[in-house]
Specification:
This protein has ten helices and twelve strands. It has 298 residues and is an alpha/beta fold. The chain has three domains: 88 residues, Winged helix-like DNA-binding domain superfamily/Winged helix DNA-binding domain (Arc Repressor Mutant, subunit A, Orthogonal Bundle); 97 residues, D-Maltodextrin-Binding Protein, domain 2 (3-Layer(aba) Sandwich); 103 residues, D-Maltodextrin-Binding Protein, domain 2 (3-Layer(aba) Sandwich). A hairpin with a 4-residue loop joins strand 1 and strand 2.
């Protein structure tokens, strides 16, 4: 007996159990009452078990039949979920897409993708919140949250976006006016431009093959805004420690160069978090796909 041979009978049997009526089950399924009766009998023969007892007044489900029904119910539920997924897949995205993202990463990496997404989906509107404070998808009523972390998110429903590498950058004229930097050990003689923190010194990690170095450097200029740090580095205030995506435009324009590019520094990862309910709207699904495609470089 093939396992698939029973699927049609399982659907009919489940509907009979739910309605306790061959007539009602036949009506719901669009079948003749005689077809329902024959299919139940054939199913019982194939299983070698009595699933229903039928009198002139009512239908009763046997103990074996009730246990079997629970298996049928789970299978049918999955079938319905699969059908719903396909319907959603083909639906046109509509409604408001509520997104929260870190300020700088959001401006430079998320907004360009959002602009293209809005242009391609005329029935979708976007509500973007750029903030560096911790957020909750459920409590703050967002569809998606973009986060940057060292470790995997504790959230159950997430997708990876891109790695965020860090490096040190300086203006070409600054480097020409100072002694050549050939090793991380040379950095202690320089002033640094850093994201604002509680201390004026920071230990920078460097890795190259089997070598590992932690170099303590002093900041002369600190700020909580990456654009300010980039502008300060261009103005030759010192060497800036920055995520590569923040420095890339200035590097492309020749205003900054990466110092010690052969040494690896911090690597963070970005993720997009989605609500944990089973329903994912077309606008959310399509935008997540667009984000992954744009930021992974595929």
């Amino acid at each position: 007996m093939s396992d698939f041979e029973n699927l049609h009978g399982m659907i009919i049997f489940a509907k009979v159990v739910e309605t306790l009526s061959y007539t009602e089950a036949a009506k719901v399924l669009g079948l003749a009452k005689s077809s329902v009766s024959k299919e139940i009998s054939a199913l019982e023969v194939r299983l070698g078990a009595k699933l229903l007892t039928r009198t002139t007044r009512r239908i009763q489900v046997t103990e074996v039949g009730m246990t079997y029904y629970h298996y049928c119910y789970r299978i049918l539920h999955e079938v319905k979920s699969a059908d719903l997924f396909i319907r959603q897949f083909h639906e046109e995205p509509t409604g408001s897409l509520r997104v929260v993202a870190p300020v700088t990463f959001g401006c430079q990496c998320i907004v360009p993708v959002l602009n293209r997404f809005v242009a391609s989906n005329i029935h979708v509107s976007v509500d973007l919140d750029l903030t560096d404070r911790p957020v909750s998808l459920e409590d703050d009523n967002f569809d998606l949250a973009v986060v940057i972390k060292r470790e995997l998110p504790g959230h159950r429903n997430y997708r990876p976006l891109m790695d965020i590498t860090w490096g040190i950058y300086a203006a070409p004229d600054y480097l020409r006016q100072h002694a050549e930097i050939t090793s991380p050990d040379d950095l202690t003689r320089h002033d640094f431009i850093l994201f604002r923190g509680p201390a004026h010194t920071i230990s920078l990690p460097f890795r190259k093959e089997k070598q590992k170095k932690d170099i303590e450097v002093r900041s002369r200029f600190r700020a909580n805004n990456s654009i300010a740090l980039v502008n300060s580095a261009i103005a030759q205030t010192g060497i800036a420690y920055l995520p590569s995506y923040i420095a890339q435009e200035a590097v492309d324009e020749g205003k900054l160069v990466q110092v010690l590019p052969d040494w690896e520094m911090d690597i963070y990862k970005s993720y997009v978090l989605m609500k944990t309910d089973s329903y994912i709207s077309p606008r959310v699904r399509l935008f997540v796909e667009a984000l992954q495609k744009a930021l992974s470089g595929n």
